[in-house]
Amino acid sequence: MSFAEPLPRESKPRGRMRRRLRFTWPLFFAALAIGAFIFYYVLTLGYLDPAVNDFVQQWFPLVSINEALVWVMAALGLNIVVGYAGLLDLGFVAFWAIGGYVAGWLMSGFFDKAHVNVLGNPAPFIVGGIHINFWLVVIAGAAVCAFFGVLIGAPTLRLRSDYLALVTLGFGEIIPQVFHNGDDVGGLNISNGTKGISPIDPVKSLSISQQGVTFKSLGPFDHLSRYLIFVVLTILIVFMSLRLREGRLGRAWLAIREDELAASAMGVPLMRTKLAAYGIGAVAGGVAGVAFAAHVSGVLPDRFQFSISITLLAMVVLGGMGNVWGVMLGALVLAWFNSTGLPQLGDTFNSTFGTSINFPSYSFLFFGGTLVLMMLFRREGFLPESRTRLVLREPERTDMEALGSDIEEQAPELDGMRIGGKSGDDEGARL
Amino acid sequence: MTRRITALAVAAVTLVAGTAACSKSGGSGSSSNKTLIVGVDLPFQGDSADTSNATLNAMKIYLDSVGGKAGKYKVELKQYDDSTAAAGKWDDATCNKNADAHVANADEVAVMGTYNSGCAKLEVPKLNQDPNGPMLMVSHANTNVGLTNKLESGEPEKYYPTGKRNYARVITTDDKQGQAGAQFAAKDLNVKRCVVINDTETYGAGVAKAFADEATKQGITVLGNTGWDAKQPNYTALFTGIKAQNPDCVYLGGIYDNNGGQLIKDKVAVLGDNTKVKLIGPDGFTGYPAEDKLPEADAMYFTYPGLDQTQIAAAGGTGAKMLQTYQSKYNGPPPSNYVAYGVLALQVILAAIAKSDGTRKGVRDAVFEGDGVSVPASDSVIGKDIKIDTKTGDVATTYISILNMKQQKETFLKPYSLG
């Protein structure tokens, strides 16, 4: 894009139009979730043609959708830290790991000396161990992660930008390593080392199958029931993100993101606000960890690598930092692409053209290429927060001088505000 | 500008979607109802990719040589990848997904794999609960004891929620290898005082413990079993401490990747060469060209949980023929001894299919009910009788090879069978 060419002005839908835009994405995701449920329900009942079944099984197996939902939860957590508060976190995998191990400890026969059962559902042939109800474990995982989020956040408060990112990177490497080598901590086995903890107790919930709806312990193929559970957890996290974003804490995060110095000068308590971002982001990471442990029925330390943190960050950046719907879209698309899309596209390509290219091994090439293209043509992500879009689309000062001052947008801070305190319909900037 | 790119992107996506739709309609027509599918579940990316590809190719060669049939059923192989490029190795979510895909594929009756024990521990319970099963899985490379015998609390029952076994393997477990190493050290090398060090990983600590236990039984004084840290730059301090105990043998339980080269160098630098103070390692130290070139590794002994390719080739018969075809087709021998065992796993599956009624349950029952399955020495790719134990799924007789490093080559010294 040449700089001599005047930049297109943001179109500013007003009034009813604007309100409609505000509800477009929530409605889209709600429709998607309900539509997927109905579709897979009909599929489970076996009403559809076997060819359709095969196609879905190959391209959109429910097990991949469930995995993508776990990614969505974790990405939404990272979105609070990176997207809302602007604190670059390169070690988010740590919370996923902690959440996973909390599930491993509290929902398996791992501590076989203990005999604890709180509304739990031990797997067959498991003697001893701690068996706590899945929903209580979700809360426990969230609480433990919040604690560790604050613990990790605390020493980083004096740091900014790159230095902060480096410290989080350090924690993200340390915590999985602790689990990796945790089979002998002063003679105590806390993580079972590289062997990990498996199997995790099955969740007791509504089971939907050809035999009808029953309340029982979910088998390995009750994906539809797990889908419902994961959707509920995702909705909780989305709700939490949206409400926080609207409130006082959310606005304080945005203020810190835009300009930390100015925010502190305006009386935003930096320490408390940043710690809250770490803590609340970690809660979502912990919920994702517990959900993932229930999904694969086990927790293994090999999974928790740096690449997970980076993939999560890419989901947030590609989807649109700070915008819950954008992050969800980014996470769903990338998670599906990594787990199913790319291998399937590769198989299809190979069988069509008679080649034997190992497509999944080029995933980082596609990934990197996409990131470069996105940064060149759509820096703000698929579905940006309107505030970010305005900031990123605002021309540099030198360009403004060259083009004349009339090109400049109204400052985003003023957007949506009216003298007299009544903001009315004009709240697009908050989304 | 942006609009043009969007248009291009839409065009590209449409094109891809179109080809996808075409190939789908072409593919579904060709399946006949008497063709059974055997899933091949291996890590096709990362460090294990070469071995996995070679294993699949060797299995295809073997299947072609028997006319693509088992009994009255036609058999096809279907490839499943349990690794991701991001991890560069097997991945838990992918294993979980594959287990689903095996069960969902109606024509699939058994799974050959996995390569990694951790992946098997996730897949076996799911295949076990298959409503049309349990579904049989036969591994050529899982050496972790817990999958079939008690190692930790709840093992192995926790991998079989239905209470029926569905997992078999054709390779020897870690404990047997440690035992063979200890018996060889006591009887053949006549050592008296051994130091055991391990890399603290599941496999390394497992073989090290098995070696230490058996060595004590054989009358060797075990001077301790400690861990080595793979990230340490050198181990002279470790070996200086060991030197004071005056051992005549050192056992390395672990894999060469964990800084094994430095470990061997420092062992020789502090304790002297391997003819004086014997150095013994498990199969985790075999098959590394970098190690073969180390002058310090000379005269080191290795145990290998099976027969190596030179023995298989020397024995003639099916195995030698398969290796020959492979060699001429791919211009070189298979990169790992596990390739032949992959074919052996397929032989067990084919024998089960031939004995069965062509259903999943039938194939599983063929292995675990009644007499079970066996592959006679004349057909077996390793040239020995193979019989699967109907109670545990392990092979009834275990063959272990002792190798010795001579002139930068791992040479076969003698076979070892455990009584």
Write the layout of secondary structure elements.
The complex is a heterodimer of chains A (431) and B (419).
Chain A: H1 15-45, H2 50-59, H3 62-84, H4 93-106, E1 107-108, E2 115-118, E3 129-132, H5 134-156, H6 161-180, E4 204-209, E5 212-217, H7 223-246, H8 248-258, H9 260-265, H10 270-296, H11 306-319, H12 324-353, H13 363-377, H14 386-393, H15 397-403
Parallel strand pairs in A: 2-3
Antiparallel strand pairs in A: 1-3, 4-5
Helix pairs in contact in A: 1-7, 3-7, 3-10, 3-11, 3-12, 4-5, 4-6, 4-10, 5-10, 7-8, 7-10, 8-10, 11-12
Chain B: H1 2-28, E1 35-42, H2 49-65, E2 69-70, E3 73-81, E4 83-84, E5 89-90, H3 92-104, E6 108-113, H4 117-128, E7 136-139, E8 167-169, H5 174-187, E9 193-198, H6 202-217, E10 221-227, H7 236-243, E11 249-253, H8 260-271, E12 278-281, H9 289-292, E13 301-304, H10 309-315, H11 317-330, H12 338-355, H13 360-368, E14 374-375, E15 386-387, E16 399-406, E17 409-417
Parallel strand pairs in B: 1-3, 1-6, 6-7, 7-8, 9-10, 9-11, 11-12, 12-13
Antiparallel strand pairs in B: 2-3, 4-5, 13-16, 14-15, 16-17
In short:
The complex is a heterodimer of chains A (431) and B (419). Chain A is mainly alpha-helical.
How would you describe the overall organization of this protein?
- The complex is a heterodimer of chains A (431) and B (419).
- With 431 residues, chain A is mostly helical.
- Chain A has one domain.
- Chain A has helices spanning 15-45, 50-59, 62-84, 93-106, 134-156, 161-180, 223-246, 248-258, 260-265, 270-296, 306-319, 324-353, 363-377, 386-393, 397-403; strands spanning 107-108, 115-118, 129-132, 204-209, 212-217.
- Chain A has a 3-stranded mixed beta sheet.
- Residues 414-431 of chain A have low confidence and may be disordered.
- Chain B has helices spanning 2-28, 49-65, 92-104, 117-128, 174-187, 202-217, 236-243, 260-271, 289-292, 309-315, 317-330, 338-355, 360-368, and strands at 35-42, 69-70, 73-81, 83-84, 89-90, 108-113, 136-139, 167-169, 193-198, 221-227, 249-253, 278-281, 301-304, 374-375, 386-387, 399-406, 409-417.
- In chain B, helix 3 packs parallel to helix 4 (117-128).
- Chain B has 2 domains: 35-173 and 312-388, Response regulator (Rossmann fold), CATH 3.40.50.2300; 174-304 and 401-417, Response regulator (Rossmann fold).
- Chain B has a 7-stranded mixed beta sheet, with helices on one face. A 6-stranded mixed beta sheet of chain B has the order 2-3-1-6-7-8.
- Chain B is globular, with a radius of gyration of 23 Å.
- Helices cover 41% and strands 20% of the residues of chain B.
- The longest helix of chain B has 27 residues, at 2-28.
- Chain B is built from 13 helices and 17 strands.
- Chain B is α/β, with parallel strands linked by helices.
